[in-house]
Amino acid sequence: MQSLLSVLVLGALTTKGMEDISMTMESLWCENSRMSTIKNELHDSVQTGPLDESLDEEQGGDHIDITPGMLYYGNTVTLLSTLNADGSTNLAPMSSTWALGNTIVLGMGLGSQTAQNLAERDEAVLNLPGPELWRQVESLGDMTGVRHARRQHGHGSIAVSDKFAAVGLTPERAESVHCMMVAEAGLQLELHIVSCRPDVQNSFVIAQAQVLHVHADPRIVLPGTSHVDPRRWKPLIYNFRHYHTLTAQVGESGITETPTTLGAHMR
After folding, report:
1. How far apart are CA 173 and CA 256, in angstroms?
2. How deeply is 234 buried, as exposed, middle or buried, from its count of CB atoms within 10 A (0-12, 13-18, 19+)?
3. pTM over 0.85
């Protein structure tokens, strides 16, 4: 398949090549319906650029034992809004979150303003930024709402009271909680904190939260539905302390509620 794609791309350099490609594609389509996948891959390669070839054909062999300094193996970046004692909003980046049904699980370091706020007040907003906000996320990592700040997770500890203003984000009122949402975030989840307790090693805080409301940028929602369009929603990903986002679709679940033409031909 890879060699065929190379032929198609080279042929596209000339007008006649484009005509030949069209005739060849139609002919092959009659013989094998999987050619629709190739058409989509060719389109995706034009839209997103060349695929990452870091794992090429030379990669292989037995796995080796390693000891990474962290295990951020491709986590969704979030900005968590929590309520300070004076009624203002603290905003902190985090990537240790996951969802199960209507429950969100959050993990953060002990001693942070976020951990203190969650333990004392049972509300939060999980703001999910897109890749265009990675610089704001990184800047927030060096800020803290704790007056006597200390260095955490390799970041600095600059005491800042209004983090929204400090990084150029816009506060937006929530519907059911008092802390402010991030207007620029594609998704905003209002949360009710149900439990908040240390982990087994007493190094982190693990909180469980119930989702009260989900607010979405209408540009990433399929019209007339409550479904997020995965072709439009591109979350910010924290990949071993590097910022990434999603590339072209490679497949889809058999239970998806938003099937695509590409996924149908791959089953």
Report:
1. 32
2. middle
3. no
